[in-house]
Each structure stands twice: as C-alpha cells, then as structure tokens.
Specification:
This protein has 3 helices and 5 strands. It is α+β, with helices and mostly antiparallel strands. A 3-stranded antiparallel beta sheet has the order 2-4-3, with no helix packed on it. A two-stranded antiparallel sheet has the order 1-5.
Length: 178
Amino acid sequence: MSDVERENCAILGGGCITIALALLLLAIALLLCGCRSKRDVVREVTVIETHDSISYIHDTLYFDVPAQSAEVVTRDSVSQLENDYAVSIVSLNKDGSLSHKLNAKPQSVPVPYEKPVQTKTQVIYKDKRIEVPVPVEKKLTAWEQFQLRSFWALLSLSAVAVCIIFRKPLFSLIRRFI
C-alpha cells in the first residue's frame, strides 16, 4: 500500500468513528426534545344569520259605502235625518205632514292606515375562521416546556457539531466536485 492509500484508510477509519459519534450526539439531542405543543384547531364555517323585522308603510284603503235609505214622516214642522254620505229630500205633504227622505250615494271612501310589511334579512358569512381550542389533559411541566423551547437550539448546535467533526471529509468531498 502506498502512503496515499494508508492516509485514505486512516481518514475513512477515523471518519467511521466520527460518524458514529455524530449520530450518537444527534440521537441524544432528539431524545432531549419533547413532542409538539398543543395547537388550536381552526375550522372554516359558513354562518347564516336571519333577521326578521316588521316595518309599517303609510297606505290608503278604499272601501265601498253601501247604499242606504231612510224615511221619516212627522207632523212637526222640523225633521232631521243625518248621514255623512247621503242626499236629503224634504217635502211638505198635502195633509200638512212633513216628509223627509235620505238616500245614501254608493261610493268609495279612502281610509288611511299603516300596512305592516315583514322583512327577512339573511347575512351569510363564508370562510369565517373560528378557533376551537383543543382541551389538554394536564399542563406541561417546567422540564417539558424547556424541552419544547430548546429543540431548535439543540438541533442547530448538533448541525454545527456535525460540520465541525466532519470538516476534513466534507472539505475533501467538496474539493472533488470543484
């Protein structure tokens, strides 16, 4: 074997030990990190709100006055028949009696009133996000909270350690491709 081959074997042999050491450090880092924290579930919901309201509109109603007739015969000199929508005819008969005849005119009479109008309004909200908290059985301990917070720091430290440990094989690999 030449010196170059011996050097490559030494690098590869030392490389296997460093790889095993790096994997061991990575496994320890992953064991120290906890699971993911609780997360709120978000649902998209379509909400339909219905509002009923009653408003009043001023309107006029027309109704027909029925035809009426009334007749009075009296021996007095004064006779009075009253109707708001009538024609009164007064006559003095031959025997000295006063005849008073009232005939109502058929017509339509306007009467103002307030007409109720019911209005239904529907408001539709689509894709409205409602956060639904997921119930947790128990709160996290201080150690579990530390594990959740320190995961990314340990992961980045592990990556830096792997780069430092494998710097020689990485540089030789990079030089081959350059």
